[in-house]
Amino acid sequence: MSDPVVREFATNDWSIYRTRFLVRAKQLRRPLSFKDALGREHSGSPGDYLVQSSEGLFRIAPREIFEDIYVVLEDLENQSRNWTTPLSRQRLSA
């Protein structure tokens, strides 16, 4: 019988995933700390990212994690200035 851990790491049955949410973000230039609407403390250092979800909630993401997950969408840069409609509801052109 083969080792179950080895079977779990077999490369032929893996799927590729992407994040499904669009966010607005800006890289911090100086330390920032704040409490969100739910009373949770957030703090970040220069280089981390202040992230706004399509629901309008703010959080801070460490630089290493943010840059590993998100890729900037250049064609939406101008659209981000008008963040009145959540991006998840906006029609995106390819």
Structure description:
With 94 residues, this protein is α+β, with helices and mostly antiparallel strands. The chain has a domain at 19-70. It is built from two helices and five strands; from the N terminus they run αβββββα. The chain has helices at 4-8, 63-69; strands at 24-27, 32-35, 41-44, 49-52, 58-61. The strands form two sheets. The chain has a three-stranded antiparallel β-sheet with strand order 1-4-5. Strands 2-3 form a two-stranded antiparallel sheet. It is elongated and about 45 Å long.
Gyration radius, in Å: 18 Å
Query: What string gives the helices and strands in order?
Result: HEEEEEH
Low-confidence stretches: 85-94
Judged by helices, strands and strand pairing, the structural class is: alpha+beta
Q: Fraction of residues in helices? A: 10-25%
What descriptors fit this protein?
alpha+beta, elongated, 5 strands, 3-stranded antiparallel beta sheet, two-stranded antiparallel sheet
Summarize the structure.
13% of the residues lie in helices and 21% in strands. It contains 2 helices and 5 strands; from the N terminus they run H-E-E-E-E-E-H.
Topology summary:
Layout: H1 4-8, E1 24-27, E2 32-35, E3 41-44, E4 49-52, E5 58-61, H2 63-69
Antiparallel strand pairs: 1-4, 2-3, 4-5
